[in-house]
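Archive entry. Fields below.
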Amino acid sequence: MAFFHIPDVYIKGIAACVPKNTVLNESLTHIFPEEELEKVINSVGIKERRIADADVTASDLCFRAAEKLLNDLKIEKESIDVLIFMSQTGDYIIPATAPILQYRLGLREECACFDIGLACSGYVYALTTAFTYLNLPEVKRVLLLDGETFSKIVNPSDKTNALLYGDAGTATLLERKEGSNFYSLLKTDGSGWNAVYIKAGACRNPTTPESFLVYEREDGSLGNDNQVYMNGLDVFNFTMRVVPKSIKEITEKFNFELKDIDKIVFHQANKFMTDFFIKKLKYPKEKVPYCLDRFGNTSSASIPLTIVSELKDWHEERKNVLISGFGGGLSWGSAIFDLKDTYISDLIEM
Amino acid sequence: MNEIEFVKNFASIFDEIEDNELTMDTEFKDIDEWSSLTALALLAVIDEEYDVKLTNNDLKNSVTVRDIYNIVNNHK
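PREDICTED_STRUCTURE:
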């Protein structure tokens, strides 16, 4: 079963934290000739990105976002029953990062803490997992921390990836609420597992001195085997096939029409790509918020970051939001929920 | 499938190439403007116009506009 309907739950609040340090894409003249650089920036739609300092990790950014959210909402830390950390750039290989965050945040021992590791579809998956826990009678509050620092795993001269990724950390607090529904659709095509990947550094190909040698990949991009590789064309081929279709599938399954959806928040991958989806769906582009011009592609953190940076001042009676995440795995998911009673913190920097 | 239409659609991904500068025999990877971005644009235009999803391998194995035309034709 790939469709999920979880009744009587909602997002109580969302917060996000980005690094202060801004990198302008127009400065990347060592990778692209000037004329080409301008074209690439316009097409991809990313002007600048936030990059974490060497000693700042995704969990640090998430920690700040969580503190902000819990303070804003005056939530007692003892009341958190489950803490989920969603990231592919955790602090260590062992242990999971969620226990470290539990300790730093001062959550109680009776709190289930674990990590989820997925690429750009991660927020939709983790949100569905988090809401599923709220179905258990003992669980009243779940804190989902989703953050990434892809700047640490991208070769700065990689033509495909260097101008895409930014860093961010987010916090989402979930509770029960009668009459409020969460719907999602989660899908996977593992045959494309190597379309976005880091070859070395885990158990299949352990780190060796050779894995740090930089070489030119098949597509002309530069990187070593401990850095991320993306087959851009295959990823685009995949997203074209699945993203508009999955949006149709979830709306049809749960009896929504696209006109019932007040905003579509896409994973902030690449504006060329998401503009193409909007056109295919014939969905009004003014209802599709973007923050990638200022923050880049922050992988799975990009959906909650967009909600915080673009939807804080959105005032409507009804706020039906459809979110759509897609990427490495290959993995994709969509979800529909109402943001009307959700508190959104001011975006913070560290 | 109309060849003239196809060439016109193909040419639309380039800013600096007019429709009449492109033929079925053009070796498109030799065009200055050909890049990973124009490749994405080609995938998008072929999907929109012919409902065919080109893969990385399709592009790798193609040299001329006609090669792409044949792939699209075989998918239809």
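CURATOR_NOTE: The CA atoms of residues 86 and 116 of chain A lie 5 Å apart.
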